[in-house]
Amino acid sequence: MSDTPSPALPKPHAPLHAQPASATELIHHPYQPPTVFAAPTFGVHKASTVLFDSVAAMRDTTWMDKSGYTYGLHGTPTSFLLEERICALEGGLQTLLVPSGLAALALVPMALLKAGDELLMPDNAYGPNKSLAEGELRNWGITHQFYDPMNPDDLAARISDKTRLVWLEAAGSVTLEFPDLPALARICRERGVTTALDNTWGAGIAFNPFDFGDGWGADISAHALTKYPSGGGDVLMGSVTTRDALLHKKLKLAHMRLGLGVGMNDVEMVLRSLPTVHLRYGAADRSARALARWASQQPAFVQVLHPALPGSPGHDHWRRLCAPAQARADAGDDSGAAASLFSVMLDPGCSPAQVDAFCDALRLFRLGYSWGGPISLVVPYHLDEMRSLPTTLTPGHLIRFAVGLERTADLQADLAQALSHALR
Ligand SMILES: *Cc1c(COP(=O)(O)O)cnc(C)c1O
Question: What distance in Å separates the CA atoms of residue 267 and residue 9, rounded to the nearest whole number?
Answer without folding.
Answer: 45
